[in-house]
Amino acid sequence: MLGRTFDSRGGVSVAIIVSVAAFLPTACLAASDHALLPRNLSPWGMFQSADIVVKAVMIGLAVASLVTWTVWLAKTIELRRKTALARQRISLLERDTELAEVEQASREASDAVAQIIQSASREAMLSGGIFDDGFKERIALRLERVEAAMSRQIARGTGVLATIGATAPFVGLFGTVWGIMNSFIGISEAHTTNLAVVAPGIAEALLATALGLVAAIPAVVIYNHLTRSIAAYRALLGDASVMVMLLVSREGDRSLFRLARAAE
Q1: Interval 62-105: pLDDT, tens
Q2: SS3 string of the chain?
Q3: What is the pLDDT of residues 163-215, one digit of tens each?
């Protein structure tokens, strides 16, 4: 009777031990998977857990995005201010006035149209008031050079937007490739294809790609917008040059007319 009881209890104990032994590997694997999974999958958490190279890529793309918006703000303010001044000067040139008067009004200014007016006045002074075809040609050459210099000045800083828009996706792709490489290295070191091993590297790679797009897309859009605005500003400078040439031509015709009247 006791033997049977012992056998029964022993069989139960053996069954319990076998069940626990079968459960232990699964429990250990689950605990290992939980340990491999990152605790924080937010963008900041993925940045903190990223490789140093991926971190450098993310920081570079964030700086590029900051530069893009800084250039947009600075050039927008500059274009609005200079466009308003150019229109004001052009309205002054459209009146029935003389070159000396508009030069006096813009003597202390340094905007583009003021530079055009001062350059024309300077050539008129150097020519001794002789209004001939050579004088008009010299005026046109001066205005062309001033217009080109002012156009280069207003476009300064926009080239970095084109560079960011062209290179940011490839920089983000480099971070993506590096993150995927880390994922494969993790697979080889852990000797498993469990998702817990490859998830952190994939998340970092995708975050680098997203930052590359966040930096590139606004840069391209802002560059195109500023290019159109700069083209419109250059058209205003061309109008100002034409108005100065017309003013010089009218003054020359008036001088010839006064000489003809005096000869009569």
Answers
A1: 999 999 999 999 999 999 999 998 898 888 888 767 777 888 87
A2: CHHHHHHHHHHHHHHHHHHHHHHHHHHHHHHHHHHHCCCCCCHHHHHHCCCHHHHHHHHHHHHHHHHHHHHHHHHHHHHHHHHHHHHHHHHHHCCCCCHHHHHHHCCCCCCHHHHHHHHHHHHHHHCCCCCCHHHHHHHHHHHHHHHHHHHHHHCCCCHHHHHHHHHHHHHHHHHHHHHHHHHHHHHHHHCCCCHHHHHHHHHHHHHHHHHHHHHHHHHHHHHHHHHHHHHHHHHHHHHHHHHHHHHHHHHHHHHHHHHHHHHC
A3: 999 999 999 998 888 888 877 777 777 676 666 666 666 777 788 888 999 99
CA 160 – CA 67 distance, rounded (Å): 8
For 25, other C-beta atoms within 10 Å of its C-beta total 9
> 91 vs 87, 102, 194, CA distance in Å?
6, 11, 73
Amino acid at 236: L
Residue 7: count of CB within 10 angstroms of its CB: 10
Question: Do the beta carbons of residue 216 and residue 169 sit within 8 Å?
Answer: yes
Q: How long, in residues, is the chain? A: 264
* Per-residue buried b or exposed e for 214-223, using 16+ beta carbons within 10 Å of the residue's own CB: bbbebbbebb
Tell me how crowded residue 104 is: count the other CB atoms within 10 A of its CB: 12
Give me the mean pLDDT over the 12-38 stretch. 41
Q: Which two tokens stand for residue 246?
A: 């017309």
Contacts of 98 (CB under 8 A, 6+ apart): 247, 251
Cα(130)–Cα(255) distance, rounded to whole angstroms? 9
Q: Are 215 and 69 within 8 A, CB to CB? A: no
